[in-house]
Design brief:
11 helices, 2-enoyl-CoA Hydratase, Chain A, domain 1, single chain, ClpP/crotonase-like_dom_sf, Enoyl-CoA_hydra/iso, six-stranded mixed sheet, 49% helix, isomerase, 9 strands, peroxisome, three-stranded mixed sheet, Enoyl-CoA hydratase/isomerase family protein, alpha/beta
Length: 247
Amino acid sequence: MTILIEQAASGVLTLTMRRPEKKNALNLAMYRQLTAALQQARQQLQTKVVVIQGDADCFTSGNDLQDFLSAGALDMQHPVVQFLYEAASFPKPLIAAVAGLAIGIGTTLLLHCDLVYAAPASRLQMPFTLLGLCPEAASSLLLPQIAGYQRAAQYLLLGEAFSSEQAAQFGLVNDIVPAEQLLAFVAAKAETLAALPSEAVLRSKALLKAPQQALVQQVIGQELLDFQQLLSSDACQKQLAAFFKRR
């Protein structure tokens, strides 16, 4: 099992990344499962809220790079690209429960979640430049808006890791919750949200997102173009070879 999908009668859909032997690294099959689940949830009236989580020890260590590189060009047929656009435009509330590692997409995905709760000392990182790559998931747009330009530059240019406590300080994380309580806490928040009048919640999210929804889509597209070009560069190939050698 890679993505565990649970639909509760209350209207909460929980998507659990479960690949512990790889620290929940996302492979192409997992991306397809996540995208299909969100697309179905978009259409189903019984789904009011979606929770994305890992386990009590790890959210996700990011892309399974070997698998990611095998999928070819970053066009609309690529499972990662499909997931990015689906998550960025998803109309219903998304809640993330973050524990342990949240690397690469594990951090940039949070920028598209409406509520984010994290365990203490979780480690977030967007190490794109360390691999000779650039930001993705509209993080070059959204992170400076949340964290301020200089802090965003620290995390996107230097690729430095930061803690869940730091993320809470600059506004990416709503609250820090003890690890042993995190999943239950997020489930309770989701139940509370699902019990509210759904049309009011949907319209409120739409209003929050509307001012820059088109810009987010545009930036995702531009980032993907740059990302694709950098993937074939000598510098990126050298960094990726060194990464695989270490692994």
